[in-house]
């Protein structure tokens, strides 16, 4: 028995030694697929070598192709007065040499726009075309047209242009209202730094950004898709290539993208565009009051409610003055809509049509009162110091 055990031990030792040598020098002799290993390429079916549908989600080429033809380049120029050499300010020099005529110079700018109608209407930012006396639009296919201004709305920084074309124009489609959510993937399309049409990708970082000091009326989509100078007026689209916003501004210390860009929601842009096309301008309500936020300290000191807007001033002969409102009143509701803060007053008043009668609920010296106001038309931005 002992001899048999000795023979078995020696045989096992030799077998293990041989196996060790083979696995070291010729591992392919003993390797074979396990349950977790993929079969050799020769055994894979043709169906397995075809990219899976899930990979298509990694590309946004279809969205870009749908939107790119509708995004245009805008080139502007205007005549400016050439600076005069300081020497010509010297009376002695002018006495002998006279005052030479100034040679006018032209400054140029660039931006982007979005074709929103097959009839040639283009949405862009007001600051892109402001003060320009010549506007040229270049389409995606290289065609160039002279454009005219249909109307502008400086308070939202939007403008509408139009070109006349004998060929069919590719118009972008608008996304469904309120379809944008934080975290959605978006593409920013424009002409950054004049290098040519460019697509950048990011997500919706936030919605309803306001109080940034960019425009009078602010309700921005914030995105980290790269937006640079020249992208202004371009399109922010979803993964279907539908318009969700008009790229407007960036937060930057250097002039380049820092991943904080702002776009005007497509719903707002569409509403402004339709008013401009129909009336040539945007009509908003106005009652002529200056308001300020009610801080906890102010509420405690003046015995004011926590919600509402404190009326700090009233314009002469304004609807508010004729309606009996006074400085120191707290506006808590207008036309049946609650006023929670000072920012809400601007939006609520602007949404009311001129000529309409609206009830204003106020608190004066602790008592709730009502006043009837006849809404007037909001003056031009240079004149509209009050809501």
From TrEMBL:
SUPFAM superfamilies: PDZ domain-like, Trypsin-like serine proteases. Keywords: Hydrolase, Protease, Repeat, Serine protease, Signal. It comes from the Bacteria. InterPro entries: Chloro_Bact_Ser_Proteases, PDZ, PDZ_sf, Pept_S1C_Do, Peptidase_S1_PA, Peptidase_S1C. The keyword Protease applies. Gene3D superfamilies: 2.30.42.10, 2.40.10.120. Residues 276-341 form the PDZ domain. PANTHER family: PEPTIDASE S12, PROTEASE DO-LIKE 8, CHLOROPLASTIC. This is Do family serine endopeptidase. It comes from Uliginosibacterium aquaticum. The lineage of its organism: Bacteria, Pseudomonadati, Pseudomonadota, Betaproteobacteria, Rhodocyclales.
